[in-house]
Amino acid sequence: MADSFLFNVAESVLGKLGSLALKQFSLAWGLESDLEKIKDNLKVIKAVLLDAEQQRSQNPRIEVWLENLKEVLYDAEDVVDEFECEALRRQVVKSGNTTRKVRRLFSSSNPLAFRFRMGHKLKQIRERVTEIAALKSDFGLTEQIFDRHVIHREREMTHSFIDASNVIGREQARDNVIETLLRSVDGENVSIIPIVGIGGIGKTTLAKLVYNDQRIATHFELKLWVCVSDVFELDKVIIKILDSASTGQRYTDMGIDQLQRTLREALNGKKYLLILDDVWSEDPRKWGELKTLLMGGANGSKIVVTTRSQRVAKIMGTVSALNLSLLSLQDCLSLFSKCAFKGQQEKQNPNLKRIGEEIVRKCKGVPLAVITLGSLLYSVTDEREWEFIRDNEIWKLEQKEDDIFAALRLSYEHLPSYLKRCFAYCSIFPKDYEMDDIELVYLWIANGLVQSSNENQELEDFGLRYFKALCSRCFFQDFAEYGGSVGCKMHDLIHDLALSVSINECSMVRTSTQQIPKSVRQISFPYPQSLPNDLPESLQNLDRVQTIWSINERREGISSEVFIKKCVSRFQYMRVLDLTFSGFEVLPTSIGDLKHLKYLSLYGNGLIRRLPNSICELQSLQVLLLGRCWSLEELPKDIKYMINLRWLWITTNQKYLPTGGIGCLKSLRFLFIGWCDNLEYLFEDMQGLKMLRRLFVCFRRSLTSLPQNIKCLMALETLCIDECENLDLAMEEGENNQFPTQFSLQKLELRNLPKLLEFPQWLIQGSTNNLKVMRIGECDNLRELPECLQNMASLQELRITDYPKLNNN
Questions:
Q1: Which helix (H) or strand (E) holds 332?
Q2: Which of the four, 301, 387, 668, 687, has the lowest number of CB atoms within 10 Å?
Q3: How far apart are CA 308 and CA 287, in angstroms?
Q4: Spatial distance between the Cα atoms of 48 and 43, rounded to a whole number of angstroms
C-alpha cells in the first residue's frame, strides 16, 4: 500500500489531540501529562505504519496489532469529541442572553462526574496507546516515509454530457445501433435491441452516444432513460420510467395497479425510445410483466437494453444482440493519450509514450481501465511514477481474462490516504445512487474525514477539493450541475471497489445479513421499509456506529419509530443520522442525547408535524435537512442555540420566520428555504448570517419581498431564486437606502419569477469583477437586462432562456 489508510486516521487523531478545547480541559484538570504521552507514542507508532501495512498479510500478529491500533484511535476520536461537545455546551450556557429555562436545559447534570469520567477515559487511552507502542518492537518494524509513489495532482472536472469526439473506437457500433433503431420491423410494435459486454467495456457510453445522436432526436416522439441495476422490481422500474417521462409528479405513493395504468397512458400511441441500462435480472417472468406494459407504444418504438449477461440478452431481445468487443490496441493508445498527456507532453517525452503503451497492454482492451489509469497519470512527467504503475505487484495477482479490477485497485492505491478514506465512505450508498457534492462533503466532515491545514480556509472548500480530486481520477462520473451543486454517480465496478476496500469499516444491512464485523462504524439500509421494530440481530454486537444512512431508489426510508428510538438509544456515538424519505410522525425526544451528532436529515418526511425542542440540544450539529417536510408546522423555538449549524434546509407551514431564530446562527454557510407555500416574510435579522455563502429560495407562492438586510450578507457567493410567483425583487435605492449591497456574488440564478419586470441592480451592484455565472430563465415579463453586463470581464457563463418581453424590445 503506497499510502496507509490507518496513517491518515492516526494523523487525524494527533490533530484533534491538539484541539483548543482539550488543551483547556487538560490544563484545568491536570491531564497534560497523559495527553503528551498519548501524542508522543502515536508519533512513534505512525512512523512505522507503512512497514506494518506492508507486512500485515504475511504476519497475523501484525494484523491483530493494527486492528487494535485502529480501535484505540477511533476511541480516542470519540473522547476528544466529548470534550468538544462539552465546550460547545458551556458556550451556550454562558451566553449573555440565556434564560434560566435554557440554562437548565443545557446544564450538565453533574460537572464533577463528567470531569472524573473523562479523566478516567483519557488515562485508559494513554495506557492502551503505550501498550501498543511497546509491542511494535516485537515485529522489527522500520520507519518509512509516507506518500511515496502517491501521485498528487488535480485536473479539471469533466462534464456529464457525452461528447462524441471524446469517445474512441465506437463509431461503427454506434452507427450499427442507430441503423437498427431507424429500421422498421414488420409485425412488431416495439423492438428490443440488447447491447452485451463485460463490465467497463463501454455499454452505457455507447447507449449515451446513440441516445444523444441528432438522428435519434428527430425520429422518436419520446426518449426515456432508466438505469435498472441489479434490482429488477416491477414497481421500481415503472417509477423510474415515469420519472424519465415527466417532471415534478410524484409516483412513489401509487399502488402497483395505478402505476401500471399511468405507464400505459404515458406511452400509449407514442413512438418512443427507451434505454434500459445495466440490466442484471435473468428472471423471464419479471421481464414478461414489464414487457406487457411497454407494448402500447406506436409502431417503430424501440427499447435498448445494456447488460453483461448473454442470458438477459436472449430473454429480452427481439433482434440479435450487439456483442461489444474489446477496444483495439491502437484505439486504447489513443484513448490513453487523451487522458494522460497534457498538450505536447507525449511528443516531448517518447519514454513516457513507450511506458504508457506497456501499461495500456495490461488493460486488455477495456476502456474503463485505460481511462482510470490514464487519468491517474495526467500531467505526471516523472518516469519513475509511470514505471511504478507498470511494474506494480497488483498486476501479478490472479485474475480472470476479462477482469479489470487490478487496474482499478491500482488507481485506488495511488490515492493520498485522506482521499482513500473519503472514497471508501462512498460504499454506504447503493449502486446508481446520485450523490450531491455538498451532501458528500458534509458527510465526510461529520465523520472527521476532512482536515484543514489552513485555519483561514473553510472545511467546505477542502472537502470540495477532495471531491474534485476524486472526480479528476474518474472515481465519479455522470455529472450534472444544478443550483450551484454538482450531482454525480459511481460506475458499478468503481462501487464494487469501494465495497472491497471498506469491508471492515462500512456495511450494507439487509434482512438476510447474519453477521457484521465489530469494527464496522458506518451502516446503511438499502431496504429500510422492511426493517423490523427491534434492532436486527446482526447489529446487536455493534456499539460505536457513526453513520446510519437509509434510502432506496424508490425514495422510501425508515418508517418504524420504535426502530429509530432503539438506534438513538444504542448508538450514542453517531455522527450521521440520515432518515431521508422516512415515514414516521414523531422524532423521539431522546434525539437530544446524541451529543456527537453532526448530520441529521429528515428530508422528504411528509408526516412529521413537530420536532422535539430537545433537538436544539445538539450543539455539535452541523447539518439539519428539513426540506420537503410538507406537514412541519414550525421550526423549533430554540433553534438559535444550534450554534454549530453550517447547512440548514427548511420547509415549513409558518407564515413568517421570527427574528431571534435562524438569524442567530452565525456559523451558517448554506441556507435553503423551499416549498413553504404559506411563508410571506423571511426573518428580518438576516444580517447576522455573516458567514452565509449560498442562499436558495424556491417554490414559495406567498413570498412577496426579500428583507432589505439581505444586502448585508457579506460572504454570499451564490444566490438562487426559483418558482416564487409573487416575489418582487425591486428595492429602494439612493441616499435613504439603509442597506447598501455588501456582497459580491459569483453565481446568480433567477427562474420562474413572473413579477420580475426590470433587472434588480442591487443584486450585482458589488459583483462587477467577481460574477462568473448568471442564469435567467422563464421570467416571462422581464423587459431589460443591466447595462453593466457587457463590462463584466469575470463573467464565464451567461444563459438567458424564455424571455418573450425581452425579445420584443
A1: helix 329-340
A2: 387
A3: 16
A4: 9
